[in-house]
## 1
Amino acid sequence: MLRGIVLAAAMAVLLGVGCASAAERFGNFVVYPEKADVIGLDGEIDTDIVHEFHQALAVRPHVKVLVLQSRGGYVDQALALAAEIRQLGLSTAIPRSASCYSACTFLFFAGREHVVRGNLGVHHVAQSDAQDGVGVYDGDVRDALARYGATAPVIRAMVSTPPSDLHVFTSHEISSFSINRGSTSCLAAKYASM
């Protein structure tokens, strides 16, 4: 319970709202009354992530940006959620004090516009990252990332980093690999700059 309170407070800081605001949680998703255009992901990508997203989306039907703070989780669930993010035309943002690692990166790249100011990290897919051993393979991930516009250097960094390690992109790589997509005035940039 304490972990949830601490994470909700951290998301409040990331989203620039006061802690007195009544944040509403739907599993690992957070919504705030005064931020109708954003939903925050604050936690692991687990087996309930798509259902929890639908619950948050029901409260925020006009959402435009998904703010990301996650160490990753199940690859198959992340790919399913990434497809929904892309279909809905949402943008994604990683604020300065946030991290999006492993399977979370699929969500990030699925964003129509996506901007990182915090940490973005990738590694090769571990077979154990799939829920219940379901066959999610490297090719599935590569195809999804390419479909979402991730550049070849990003995909090379992913496949060349062992599952036990993490390649966190430097600010130079973020620029030279064209990781950020969106104007400096887009909503994704606004939320990433918080």
## 2
Amino acid sequence: MNWSGRVALVCGAIPAGKVATYGQIAALCGGPRRARQVGRALHQGASSAAFRVVDRRGYLSGARAFPVPGLQRELLRADGIAVEADRVDLERYQWCPSEQELTALEQAFAQAGV
């Protein structure tokens, strides 16, 4: 499985009402120093859950990442996430995968030959 496939699997596991950071996604994909590559993969359409990914401080991705201005903000709000000044409160909304979720990701990677 290529990098974009890994990113898609992890992003697909982010539950509704939660967000993850680019660095967090990179670490879960096995490349803890590849946050920028996560951004590239998402920009190229790796996952429909890309709107749930924010920067390490909780700031939204910005207009360049989404074709419609404010789209990420609106999608997050529809998902039940409060967005203030284009920022998400990570203490409240950051996804902390359970052991069960981590095991499921490991199994998905194994099935994909990672």
## 3
Amino acid sequence: MFSDDHYIIMASYVKHVTNIPASLSPSPQVRIAAPFVQEIKNGVVVWQWDASAYPEFYSVSNKGNNYSDSAYVQDYMHINGMA
């Protein structure tokens, strides 16, 4: 928190993406846990970072992701902290 009305939050939400590199054999129905960081000031998002906008992150993920499996959400980054 910077102040009562100015803070940064992070979260992940499930979404369908179409930018996973073909070399990773993604299913057309694949869903990911998309990491987000937002800066909120006076109730308005003034800055946002969506990791799913950067396809290079999909291939460097090294923990059990199978982008061809649409039955499970692929948590390729598992955001759980920031500094």
